[in-house]
């Protein structure tokens, strides 16, 4: 499509670690002003592919290719020294985690200045001017002040932009971005995507790596879907998104919750819990007594050397039996603080929580303890909520016996039943959770939460650390369990499409306050508050579906 | 990490080979043994001294207290492997017999130090704000005095002797352990793991006993092994100053002290007891590091 030579030409790329191949026979090209998205789930080889393109495949790796041209240079057999002249100057690399990719002890400006200085670009004063220009270009307000701040003083979105500024400091012809928006809130992610779109419009070639087809849909010209180290389907973005041929691409697209009706399965039948679903939906008792009720909750935290920080202000809600109440908002909106108060882990400064009509937040922990079995919780990072010394079976035995025993043999039958309920093989009982995959860990966390036979589950970002395809399976499982066991969920997420798919009612939180609440469809189709509209605008596909 | 690159002829489809230090299959067994050599040597050294402490008469050819002026100051040789001291006592036999008091003092002192630290650290980490404050100030007072001075003060008050040495060394090492245990407990107390246990309805005491202490103690076991070697050095230092085991008992620190006078004349009198102390300290350090890596895996 372009007369000039491609910026990136990869033919038959193979990467292996020791004897284990992780990338097999991968070929693609990227032309100037063009964006290729490499999409697949964790372990599909997409990140290793991207790293091979800058000579950082990693220790113990063997990289082979029939052709590997990066920004006009034949990159086969380059020394590390030669690679260094390519990285930064010809290829900018943007990593997912800006918090760990930036040195916390150095000023942002210095970090960017390094890239300029190492490649011998201009005098000190000229470089300082260029740093400010770059920070302005990536949309940071007050760039002069930002340049003298350290990464800890910036928010997640600002850090990601600072990282992009350092990656594009030398005007690289090619930009490689590995999950650039995965860790970001929707509105910030939309801004970063806009920024990347601007770079592409200015003529940069771009390689975008993501696990989420929906996230790249707006930016990519063409998409290559990777599975098990191979490209299983590739082509123009419209064709891949509109008329996917390969079953895996279809599964990835189906996994996107945006625009799918409530309870519609997101994952292929083969990956869902084995037992068929006895379809006896719990009749919603919206008129009855709520199972969990919060009234006028407020909580402030003391900040050393500053005014108190009001994390939650005047929050109230009602959760009814068999229903899901979604809580959506960006980081810092008070969602998790609300959840911790509902769980009785944090005493509210003002306001009350009632469980089944009885006081919950105002009573001492000793009085709550006997009633705790009715209320379960699952978290974003299940592994950190497990005792690292216990096997999966021991964790479940502990939960089933109310802490009396950790011997899995004492509750073998019940453990197998729980594992089957969440779609895990019973042989996994002997494994340490650290050796399980992300999806398996979250299933195990759900099994443990279900062990005391709770009526209410509080789910705090249960799927935000998971790939879209795994997320689909976990969401389907939660849906399935709700219908089978008549559970009520307080479901917290920053992802609007997930909230819309899961919730009957929704609360939109901003800065510790509820800015809008109501039935999910009403809030999403006719948002009344400007903040809700901003959130929806930043999440393409949530409103219209596809 | 060092990465070796293989230069390849142009046109070869292999573009770069990053080879981590990974041995060829045939040499793998040998290399594995070589990589673990320090660990194996350390285990052997400690095993030797433990055996010496348990069965000194099997390993030692002479009576450690038998005076034989004719043989005084014999250099290391066939008759006396490591030479003799000013009274003609066999140095090798004295080192073997010295293993028991040295190791016992080290182990007992470490146990006392860890026990005290466990108590203080748990109170500070789990007892709430005021107890934490109180214990924190006590630890600061203990920290304010140099370790050896603290031990000397204690011995000055309680009188010299083996028992006092053990308590003195234990007391000296306790504040450091206590702070680490406190930090471990505080980190675990606010961890998602403990939160999850609370949500499941476990009591505070139950959580402390089943989740917090077992997880806090794993790293402390590593420190204990490291501390064992250190405690042996401490005990030897006190004996060297004449405040530990009374003469003529064969104790490494006391032997070091006795040999000091004759350093120019008979270097082996100080060198070999010193070597024994260094070997035990080094071996326990290597072993604790191996424990630490095993725990991290």
Key traits:
heterodimer; A: 546 residues; alpha/beta; Rossmann fold; 2 domains; six-stranded mixed β-sheet; B: mainly alpha; two-stranded antiparallel sheet; disordered N terminus
| Oligomeric composition of the shown chains | heterodimer
**Low-pLDDT segments, ≥5 res of chain B:** 1-25
Tally the structural domains of chain A: 2
Mean pLDDT of chain A: 85
Work out the helicity level of chain B. Answer: 55-70%
Q: Largest chain-chain contact?
A: A-B, 45 and 34 residues
Please outline the major beta sheet of chain A: 6 strands, mixed
CATH architecture descriptor of the largest domain in chain A: 3-Layer(aba) Sandwich
The proportion of residues in beta strands of chain B is under 5%
- Assigned CATH class of the largest domain in chain A: Alpha Beta
* Percentage of β-strand residues of chain A: 15-25%
Report on the structure:
The complex is a heterodimer of chains A (546) and B (297). Chain A has 546 residues and is α/β, with parallel strands linked by helices. In chain A, the strands form 4 sheets. In chain A, strands 7-8-9-3-10-11 form a 6-stranded mixed sheet, sandwiched between helices. A 6-stranded mixed sheet of chain A has the order 17-18-19-14-20-21, with helices on both faces. Mean pLDDT of chain A is 85; it is low at 274-286. In chain A, 50% of the residues are buried. Chain B has helices spanning 28-35, 37-54, 56-59, 91-126, 129-144, 147-158, 162-189, 192-199, 204-240, 252-260, 268-296; strands at residues 4-5, 14-19. The longest helix of chain B has 37 residues, at 204-240. Chain B starts with a strand and ends with a helix. The model of chain B is unreliable at 1-25 (pLDDT under 50).
């Amino acid at each position: 499509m372009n007369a000039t030579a491609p910026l990136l030409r990869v033919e038959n790329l193979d990467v292996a670690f020791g004897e284990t191949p992780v990338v097999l026979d991968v070929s693609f090209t990227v032309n100037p002003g063009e964006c290729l998205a490499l999409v697949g789930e964790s372990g599909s080889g997409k990140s290793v592919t991207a790293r091979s393109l800058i000579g950082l495949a990693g220790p113990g790796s063997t990289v082979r290719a029939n052709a590997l041209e990066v920004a006009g240079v034949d990159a086969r057999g380059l020394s590390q020294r030669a690679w260094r002249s390519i990285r930064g100057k010809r290829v900018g690399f943007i990593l997912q985690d800006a918090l760990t990719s930036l040195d916390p002890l150095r000023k942002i400006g210095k970090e960017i200045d390094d890239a300029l200085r190492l490649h011998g670009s201009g005098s000190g004063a000229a470089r300082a001017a260029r740093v400010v220009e770059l920070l302005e270009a990536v949309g940071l307000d007050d760039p002069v002040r930002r340049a003298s701040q350290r990464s800890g003083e910036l928010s997640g979105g600002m850090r990601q932009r600072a990282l992009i500024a350092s990656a594009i400091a030398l005007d690289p012809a090619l930009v490689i971005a590995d999950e650039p928006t995965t860790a970001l809130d929707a509105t910030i992610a939309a801004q970063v995507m806009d920024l990347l779109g601007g770079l592409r419009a200015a003529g940069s070639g771009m390689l975008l790596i993501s696990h989420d087809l929906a996230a790249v849909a707006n930016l990519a010209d063409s998409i290559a879907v990777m599975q098990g180290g191979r490209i299983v389907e590739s082509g123009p973005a419209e064709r891949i998104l509109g008329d996917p041929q390969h079953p895996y691409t279809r599964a990835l697209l189906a996994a996107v919750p945006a625009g799918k009706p409530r309870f519609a399965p997101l994952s292929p039948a083969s990956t869902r819990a084995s037992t068929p679903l006895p379809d006896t939906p719990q009749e919603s008792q919206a008129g009855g007594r709520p199972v969990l009720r919060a009234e006028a909750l407020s909580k402030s935290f003391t900040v050393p050397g500053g005014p108190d920080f009001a994390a939650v202000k005047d929050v109230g809600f009602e959760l009814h039996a068999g229903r899901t109440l979604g809580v959506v908002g960006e980081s810092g909106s008070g969602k998790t603080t609300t959840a911790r108060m509902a769980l009785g882990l944090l005493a509210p400064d003002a306001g009350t929580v009632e469980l089944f009509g009885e006081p919950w937040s105002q009573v001492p922990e000793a009085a709550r303890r006997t009633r705790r079995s009715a209320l379960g919780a699952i978290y974003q990072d299940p592994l950190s909520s497990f005792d690292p010394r216990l096997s999966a079976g021991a964790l479940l035995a502990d939960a089933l016996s109310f802490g009396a025993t950790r011997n899995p043999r004492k509750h073998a039958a019940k453990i197998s039943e729980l594992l089957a309920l969440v779609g895990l093989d019973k042989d996994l009982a002997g494994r340490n959770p650290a050796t399980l995959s992300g999806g398996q860990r979250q299933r195990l966390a759900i099994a443990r939460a279900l062990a005391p036979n709770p009526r209410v589950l509080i789910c705090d970002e249960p799927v935000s650390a998971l790939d879209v395809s795994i997320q689909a399976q976990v969401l389907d499982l939660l849906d399935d369990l709700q219908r089978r066991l008549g559970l009520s969920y307080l479901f917290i997420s920053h992802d609007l499409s997930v909230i819309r798919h899961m919730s009957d009612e929704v609360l939109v939180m901003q800065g510790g306050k509820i800015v809008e609440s109501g039935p999910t469809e009403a809030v999403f189709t006719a948002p009344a508050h400007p903040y809700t509209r901003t959130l929806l605008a930043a999440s393409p596909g949530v409103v219209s579906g596809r | 990490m060092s990465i070796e690159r293989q230069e390849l002829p142009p046109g070869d489809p292999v573009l770069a080979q990053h080879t981590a230090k990974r041995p060829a299959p045939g040499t793998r067994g040998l290399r594995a043994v070589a990589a673990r050599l320090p660990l194996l040597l350390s285990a052997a050294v400690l095993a030797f001294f433990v055996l010496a402490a348990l069965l000194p008469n099997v390993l030692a050819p002479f009576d450690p207290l038998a005076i034989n002026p004719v043989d005084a100051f014999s250099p290391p040789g066939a008759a006396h492997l490591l030479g003799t001291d000013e009274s003609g006592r066999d140095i090798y036999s004295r080192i073997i017999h010295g293993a028991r008091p040295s190791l016992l003092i080290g182990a007992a002192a470490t146990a006392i130090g860890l026990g005290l630290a466990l108590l203080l650290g748990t109170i500070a980490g789990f007892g709430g704000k005021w107890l934490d404050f109180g214990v924190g100030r006590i630890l600061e007072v203990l920290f304010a005095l140099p370790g050896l001075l603290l031990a000397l003060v204690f011995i000055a008050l309680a009188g010299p002797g083996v028992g006092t040495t053990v308590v003195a060394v234990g007391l000296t090492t306790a504040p450091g352990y206590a702070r680490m245990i406190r930090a471990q407990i505080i980190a675990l107390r606010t961890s998602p793991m403990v939160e999850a246990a609370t949500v499941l309805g476990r009591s505070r005491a139950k959580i402390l006993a089943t989740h917090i202490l077992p997880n806090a103690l794993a790293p402390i076991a590593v420190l204990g092994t490291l501390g064992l070697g250190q405690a042996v050095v401490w005990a030897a230092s006190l004996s060297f100053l004449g405040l530990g085991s009374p003469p003529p008992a064969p104790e490494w620190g006391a032997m070091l002290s006795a040999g000091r006078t004759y350093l120019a004349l008979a270097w082996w009198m100080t060198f070999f007891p010193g070597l024994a102390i260094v070997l035990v300290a080094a071996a326990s350090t290597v072993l604790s590091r191996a424990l630490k890596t095993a725990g991290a895996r």
